[in-house]
Amino acid sequence: MTSPVIRVVHSRAKDGCHAAYEALILGMFESMKHFPGFLGSELLPPLANADEYQVIVKFSSQKDLDDWDVSSQRQMWHARFRPLLAADPEYHLLTGLEAWFSLPEIPVGKKPPRNKMALITWLGIWPTASIFLYFLTPYMESLPYLLRTAIVTGLVVITMTYLLMPRLVQVFRAWLN
After folding, report:
1. Which spans are transmembrane here (predicted)?
2. For residue 164, which of 21, 83, 124, 155 is within the disulfide window of CB 3.0 to 4.6 Å?
3. How many other C-beta atoms lie within 10 A of the C-beta of residue 75?
4. What CA–CA distances, in Å, run from 115 to 68, 119, 130, 169?
5. pTM (two decimals)
6. Distance between CA atoms of residues 57 and 133, nearest Å
7. In which residue ranges of the chain is CATH 3.30.70.100 found?
């Protein structure tokens, strides 16, 4: 099972090049829309008293992101905006659990409060664990307790990571922001 991957790029434009840099990044986003596996993108301008941009792109799998990385379109866009950068960009890849609350709808510089993240996580875990326990307990009664809990918690983590959390974050994104 493949999971979506999110790349967060931290970059700084040279003085006087901010508008041109933003225009090129938005142009690159338009090209990406036609690329297989592309799920979304966002350009977050520097926060107050900062000069760092955050470029967020999401692909349906690592393979799709890798295909974009070696594409002629990406090479062309990077050749165009690289002269506008004050330094080499920093790349960060988010997958699985770390990406739950870092989707493009939630700016990386503005994470939701911990109490809201905890509540959304609980809203996913409680019914998921309850369902697995209800249906699997009759078949696992002969197994040792630690093995039963390992199986159930493993299934809960996989279900949360690949199915529920991405959807819960999308449903509650306005409240999380």
Report:
1. 119-139, 145-165
2. 124
3. 11
4. 36, 6, 22, 14
5. 0.58
6. 37
7. 5-99
pLDDT for 5 equals 86
Nearest-angstrom CA–CA distance, 70 and 149: 43
* Closest CA relative to residue 128, chosen from 162, 93, 171: 162
Residues shown for the chain: 177
The number of CA neighbours under 13 Å toward the Cβ of 10 is 9
pLDDT of residue 108: 47
118-135 pLDDT, tens digit each: 899 999 999 999 999 999
Query: H-helix or E-strand containing 8?
Result: strand 5-11
CATH fold of 5-99: Alpha-Beta Plaits (3.30.70)
